Every structure is written in structure tokens, then in C-alpha cells.
Amino acid sequence: MTLYTATYFVHLTCAMTSISFFLLRGIWMLTDNGMLGHKFTRIAPHIIDTLLLGSAIVLLFIVGQYPFINHWLTAKVIALIAYIVLGTIAIKRGKTKGQRSIALVAALITFAYIVSVAISRDPMGFLGG
User: Fold this and answer.
1) Residues 114 and 56 sit within 8 Å (Cβ to Cβ)
2) Cα(76)–Cα(65) distance, rounded to whole angstroms?
3) Most buried one in 3, 23, 55, 62, CB count within 10 A?
4) Radius of gyration from C-alpha coordinates of the chain
């Protein structure tokens, strides 16, 4: 197994784990489940997302493509920032459940956009024709 293959596998695994756990926490937020406040629930996303970001950085160097040079990667970075902000609003910063619900849906759409950009290597992702 090459370094690229191993790192890519870690990246995809972390991405799927991150979004799955985010969706679960979103459901817990909507249902007022006490698990949302559990210590593991608060710490695990940071560990998963750190591994996700770390593997992304390693992949950048392996393939020699970089944000602000390759437009599709720039789009992913900007969308990632939007996803983080929306996710924070959805899980803990939204003042009402309505605000948190809208942010949750927007974050999930943003994640789908990030995946579509990664697959197509087109900054428009699913927004393009």
C-alpha cells in the first residue's frame, strides 16, 4: 500500500465518520437528547476532524496541488470554513431550535457540495451544469 493510498483511506474514513457523527449530533439536538452534552460527544469530533484535516494536508503535498493555486481546492477550503461555522451554529451556537435546524440543513448541503467538488475537481461541484 502506498502512502497516498493509506492517507486517502484515512481521509475518506474520517470524512465519513465526521459527517455521520455530525448528523447523529444534529438528530440529538433536534430531539433534545442528553447524549449531546456527553464528554465523548464533545471531544470525539475534534479528534476526528483533526485527523481529517491532517490527512488532507498530507494529500496536498503528495499530489502537489494546493489551495489558492488549484481553484477546486480553494473552493473546498472556503466551503469547509462555511461548514464549520454552520455546524457550530447547528450544534451549539444557534439561539433557537429553528436557527439550529436551518444551520444543520445548510451544513449538510455544504458538506455535499464539498464532496461534489472533491469528486469532480471542479469548483462549481454540483452547482455546475
Assistant:
1) no
2) 12
3) 55
4) 16
Ranges of each domain in the chain = 3-127
Diameter of the chain measured on Cα atoms: 48
User: Cell numbers at residue 104, please?
Assistant: 444543520
Residue pair 121/75 in contact by the 8 Å Cβ criterion: no
- Cα(31)–Cα(66) distance, integer angstroms: 40
